[in-house]
Amino acid sequence: MFYWLLRHWVVGPFMNRVFRPWVVGLDNIPEHGGAIIAGNHLSVIDSFLMPLTIDRRVYYLAKSDYFTGKGLKGRLVRWFFLGVGQLPMDRSGGAASSQSLSAALDKLAEGQLIGIYPEGTRSPDGKLYRGRTGVARMVLDARVPVVPCVMVDTEKIMPIGRRIPRVGRIGIRFGEPLDFSRYYNLDGDRFVLRSITDEIMVAINRLSDQEYVDVYASSVKSRVEAERRALAAGRDAR
User: Fold this and answer.
1) What's the per-residue H, E or C state across 168-202?
2) How far apart are CA 76 and CA 103, in angstroms?
3) pTM (predicted TM-score)
């Protein structure tokens, strides 16, 4: 109820009026059954804007930090993210990450749509980065199609670090569903996981105007942050 209230009466009308999204390939979204929508990730508002264009509900994997805040603000943020269909994703790896993915697999088994960002984090500079194989594991476990999705210009509306989005127009492209049934009995092969992930990233790249970089976005972010700390230390030493 809360989700549909926000979508049709509160957040939905506001965002559609402010951002006037144009959409291509909406007929590529399956009308029924589970499917993964795998997209690029340019802005924190991607997870809110894309679902507004689809008649079906979309559940997104969101970083667990959004659900662990303290005090009244933390509880309100957690309540909002759960209400709009976000599922907490622990990125620390191991059992914690596996448990997070299980929640998404349960939704897929129920015939729901799951949104995921194979890059694992927002692009630090608008480029498209190497995908992580978690999406491939989901594909093989759930045995569902993957719909590639591209967000356009959302990083201009709300870049990293900005708290309030600018007014402007964004776009969304959906590609044809990808079928990976040929791999369903090869789920223990790491080369298969990489092949599936790379095929998804190629499909996303073909839909977008982004430059592709075959490294992880998190590695780029870590390097940039290290350079910033080094510069700050150098200034303090003067």
Assistant:
1) CCCEEEECCCECCHHHCCCCCCHHHHHHHHHHHHH
2) 22
3) 0.88
